[in-house]
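Entry type: protein chain
Record version: 2
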Amino acid sequence: KMTGQLSYACDIWSLGSTIIELLTGQPPYFELPMMSACFRIVQDDHPPLPQCSENCKAFLMSCFQKDPQRRLQASVLMKHEWLKGQDDVKQIDNSFEQVGRRVSDGKTQKLNPQGPTTEAKVNSFKSQRSTDDSEHTYDSKKNSFNGIEKKARTWQQNNWMDDTNTNAANEDDGAPAFPDMSFPDVDELDAGGIGIDQAADDNFDMMVGEKNLEQYQENEDDDFDDFGDVELDLNSAGGSDFEEMDTGDQVMELNFEEDDAPKEMDKNSALLRSLQDAFENLNLDNHEETIMASLRKLSTLVTENRGKIGGLVNDLTLGMISIVDMLTSKNDNIIYAVIKFVNDLLHDEGAAQNQRGTKFQQSICTIGIISLIVKYSSPRYPIRIRSHACNFVRHLCYSNEYTRKMFIACGGLPVLIRFLYEDYTNDSSRQLILSSIDCIKNIFEIKSNPKNDFCRLFCKFGLLPRLAKVFFILSQDTKHDDVKGYLDRIVRIFSLFSGGDKLVREKIAEVSVVKYILPVLPKLEFDNLFIFMKTFHRVCGVKSPTPRKLMEDAGIIPVFVQLLDHPRKEIHNQAILCMEMLMDISKSRKEKAIYAGIIPYLLEVIDKKMLLKQVALRILCDLPISVPAVRVELRKHRMVEFYVQTLSDTCWRTDALNALKLWLQAEPSRIGYQLTTSVNIPKIIQVCTSSKVYEKHVALILPTLNSMMRKSEILNRALAASPRFVLGLIGRLDQKIQDDPTMVAIIQSSVEIMNIMCDKNKNLVKFNKKYNAFKAVQTIAESAKAAGKKRLCALAENCLTSINKKLRSQGFS
């Protein structure tokens, strides 16, 4: 979106962002990281709008126009209705108050980020001591404070593990491995020595009495190599606190009673031996009955020992090599039993709900099972085998990112698309279709890869046309209750594709895709319809004519015009935005939109001053008026009066006048007569002579009016008969010539209009006598010659020659 060139239009966008920050206290996309925010600015139609008045939203939408050429200028925004009112001032004031309160709260938290200060802790300790003084009795014989020593020992027992963990965490910082539990000597606890208050100031260290720890210090000459093997007895007195031993690898937790642990371990050993015996008989050289018996035994073991197979992951992985050999068999019964066993194993609770199960899934993926099982999803195999192969694929896509990536790497995406070509009327085939939709949705949930990569791959394998057809088939299904959920999934998949690059969005616009979506579009519920409209809006926004031409061929314009009558304004607005992009430049799409009846809907938007009024005006001022059939439709809706009324709009007066010029060139007599009525001609004169009209607009209006006066003699005579118009024109000729190009252009256009009025005037003598036109043109010719404006001087001299010639022909010398 960035062109590398800055303009004042960038400041208009920033103005909208600043207003949102004033209203909410936070700028748009404040909660996102920088790169994510930049991505959303490009992808979203506009930043999220806050809760505010309709005028404020209209003002913000004008600021957030994506195309800089269509973004309104500051001078135009200054006259916006929102700036004239006061409906959002109170909300801005409240926002300032909330921001100020958050700032003051933040300062308070910074003043005390660590909680209670040391002084507060000391005061708390003092208050606690005052209530417990009765227990702190001094025993002269034992030379200690009995109460304090008792409390300290109790504290030591209750907090020993916490202090040990704290000091262990600080060993790298040089902190002592154990807390200092010594009490000060009693001689220091006299009235003038260190008391309880001083101890509290030293971070509340509870002293137990000074102990001689030197006897526990390590000797550097000690040799610890003769300890031998030490066994940890779980049944010992100290074993009751043992919960888990972590050696760096994943170890199976044994959460049984102590008496049941040996029995459970024996049971697992027996299970493992049974599995190994069954795996040993899986050999293609054995008879089919032997192989089938082993497979049935394996399935039975998995079924009867739910939740325990995952714990034997390492040994099972070795046994799965035999399964790989079985998958190369040409016997359908063996293939069916093998795939069924693998699915039972993957669905085992112990293998699906913990990290050991995840490791098991990853292990069987790396030994080549995916590619072997996936090939059995082909239509040339029986449906019972295909169904189990589909269940295997579904489990991989539902499991974790690693198995999904392995599935993609083994060529799994074409398999998912192949499932979509099944017969929906058959129940078994229908399940394949629905499973494929679920798997495609889960593929897009992989976070480590850009979604656009998956979109490209799916487009390469032809997903979108088939997915669109399945969407159409599901919309016709009234028998099954799960249809709505899958329709929602497909809509969101299309939305993901619309966020892709140019090539991906062009694939959405293909006729083979759009033709299946359009019949369903008006029947969708609001949520899905809104998502689909935003999807098409993104597709229409591609800077290429190809997607718009493809959607035109698919017949999307009449459907969008029909949606303009939708009761929800969100759908209505999206339809207008899509139509604006579709009708841009293309004459044929404009004609189709007019024939479909878009004009009355756009006029309603303008009359009710809706949010997208400016978009509706732009469409109406750019219609192909040169086409006779289009002019017939325009006359039905009295568009001449509409264009004349639009001359009072600051933003669109030049476009409206240009539309009238094109219509006047096609039908001079009819349109000239309508423009000169008592209702319309004053409005034309007003826009040409008013001092409130910007000079740059006058520089555009006068050349257009000159062309209209040359084409229509009726309009020429009507303007020449208006004293206000003629005096205003002569007033522009009396202005001093400056180096301002805009002013020079206005004077040149005024001279040309004066020339055409005098040339077509049948009573020029009376006209000249009344307005002294000849002298006004002569004055401007002299001023232009003195200022060095050669072109202006030549125009004025030609005008003088023409006026002089006309006066002489009418008998004036």
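Comment: The radius of gyration is 43 Å.
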